[in-house]
Automatic annotation (TrEMBL):
<feature type="binding site">
    <location>
        <begin position="13"/>
        <end position="20"/>
    </location>
    <ligand>
        <name>ATP</name>
    </ligand>
</feature>
<dbReference type="GO" id="GO:0097175">
    <property type="term" value="P:1,6-anhydro-N-acetyl-beta-muramic acid catabolic process"/>
</dbReference>
<dbReference type="GO" id="GO:0016301">
    <property type="term" value="F:kinase activity"/>
</dbReference>
<comment type="pathway">
    <text>Cell wall biogenesis; peptidoglycan recycling.</text>
</comment>
<dbReference type="GO" id="GO:0006040">
    <property type="term" value="P:amino sugar metabolic process"/>
</dbReference>
<comment type="function">
    <text>Catalyzes the specific phosphorylation of 1,6-anhydro-N-acetylmuramic acid (anhMurNAc) with the simultaneous cleavage of the 1,6-anhydro ring, generating MurNAc-6-P. Is required for the utilization of anhMurNAc either imported from the medium or derived from its own cell wall murein, and thus plays a role in cell wall recycling.</text>
</comment>
<protein>
    <recommendedName>
        <fullName>Anhydro-N-acetylmuramic acid kinase</fullName>
        <ecNumber>2.7.1.170</ecNumber>
    </recommendedName>
</protein>
<keyword id="KW-0119">Carbohydrate metabolism</keyword>
<keyword id="KW-0547">Nucleotide-binding</keyword>
<dbReference type="GO" id="GO:0005524">
    <property type="term" value="F:ATP binding"/>
</dbReference>
<dbReference type="GO" id="GO:0009254">
    <property type="term" value="P:peptidoglycan turnover"/>
</dbReference>
<keyword id="KW-0418">Kinase</keyword>
<keyword id="KW-0808">Transferase</keyword>
<keyword id="KW-0067">ATP-binding</keyword>
<dbReference type="Pfam" id="PF03702">
    <property type="entry name" value="AnmK"/>
</dbReference>
<comment type="similarity">
    <text>Belongs to the anhydro-N-acetylmuramic acid kinase family.</text>
</comment>
<dbReference type="InterPro" id="IPR043129">
    <property type="entry name" value="ATPase_NBD"/>
</dbReference>
Length: 383
């Protein structure tokens, strides 16, 4: 019988709303128990520093460079993640010694796989030292270094979840964070996946600039607005949407294109929000012809699952397939990515593949990640 590990996953996504923390018990293949989860939200000044680091990263040519504001942001990210772990353990009465490993994604500040360049800030060794728990981090780099897209990473966890679920196949698991990505699952083979286009990033940035809000809360502005169908069609003309998978995106990949083609800055807030929401739904639907088959079931997770306007638009565009929020099938829509990095950490320790030709375009299934143990402390673990 395979050993079961108790793992914590940490995810700070492209939406930059905070740090998701989740605990699971897994052997790296199946999930035997879902533990608690929590969100450690970022303060406005913390988001501002992260956004400054993303802007500064445009000029990076070496993924290990940490000049100026990027180094400052990395120190902040590491300290905030350590605090989130300690707070999570205290809140749930969990003994740190009972945790085998932390899966640490860090914060993506640059993702250019075509240049074999991806950068996630966050010091894995410092996090291990601060928490006293082994850490697996830097999970994208190996894949990108050999020509893979380095994203998405979560599909192998989606497969584990879908295999526990009774739903008509094929199943598409749709994660809508700052960028949206889809995992296609039909049978027991390797998962198939790609980024589909913008997720919440464009909507969030628009609401921040025009309404001083971090998001379109409950899709309210979008629900009251009118969609500019011409703008949606012009955005869909971008060559990315005709590009065959695997394919992946940087958070800001569509910022200038949408600004030019949709001209939402000239719209009133409600119409801009409605149009950007429709763009997200349309770009997701555009991937269906590129899938091996049309999915019969769509399960939506990530922040987009809590936007009723986006969910309505998805149901309209993906019909006759069913579209359900992850919470409705017994998953945690908000915690799935954090859970996934706990799962990936265990797979990494076991040397199991985390990326596949059908998910990132890498030549063969491969593992990834760097395991570090806390310095100066004895950790009674057998990996």
């Amino acid at each position: 019988m395979l050993r079961t590990y108790r793992a914590i996953g940490l995810m700070s996504g492209t939406s930059m709303d905070g740090i998701d923390v989740a605990a699971i018990e897994t052997d790296g293949e199946t999930v035997s128990r879902f533990g608690p989860s929590a969100l450690h939200p970022y303060a406005e000044n913390e988001v501002a520093l992260l956004r400054a680091a993303v802007d500064a990263a445009v000029g990076l040519t070496d993924r290990k460079q940490r000049p100026g504001v990027i180094g400052q942001a990395e120190r902040m990210v590491t300290a905030l993640h350590a605090g989130a772990v300690r707070g999570f353990l205290d809140a749930h009465g969990i003994d740190p010694a009972s945790i085998d490993v932390i899966g640490f994604h860090g914060q993506t500040i640059l993702h250019r796989p075509e240049a074999r360049l991806t950068a996630q800030i966050g010091d894995g060794q410092a996090l291990a030292d601060e928490t006293g728990i082994p850490v697996v981090y830097d999970l994208r780099a190996e894949d990108v270094a050999v020509g893979g897209q380095g994203a998405p990473l979560v599909p192998v966890y989606h497969r584990a979840l879908v295999n526990m679920l009774d739903r008509p196949r094929p199943v598409a698991v749709l994660n809508i964070g700052g960028v949206a990505n889809v995992t296609f699952i039909d049978g027991a083979g390797d998962p198939w996946a790609c980024d589909t286009g913008p997720g919440n990033a464009l909507i969030d940035d628009f609401m921040r600039a025009r309404a001083g809000a971090s998001r379109d809360e409950n899709g309210g502005a979008g629900a009251r607005g009118k969609v500019d169908d011409g703008a949606v069609a012009r955005v869909l003309a971008h060559p990315f949407f005709a590009l065959k998978p695997p394919k992946s995106l940087d958070r800001n990949a569509f910022r200038e294109w949408v600004a030019e083609q949709a001209a939402v800055s000239e719209m009133k807030v409600e119409d801009g929000a409605a149009t950007l929401t429709a763009i997200t739904a349309a770009t997701i639907a555009a991937v269906v012809p590129q899938l091996p088959k049309a999915p019969r079931t769509w399960i939506v997770c990530g922040g987009g699952a809590s936007n009723p306007t986006l969910m309505r638009m998805l149901r309209e565009r993906l019909s006759p397939a069913s579209v359900e929020a992850a919470d409705a099938v017994g998953w945690s829509a908000d915690a799935i990515e954090a859970q996934a990095f706990a799962y990936l950490a265990v797979r990494s320790m076991r040397g199991l593949p985390i990326t596949f030709p059908t998910t990132t375009g890498v030549a063969a299934p491969m593992t990834g990640g760097v395991l570090v143990e806390p310095r100066g402390r004895k950790v009674k673990k057998s990996f």
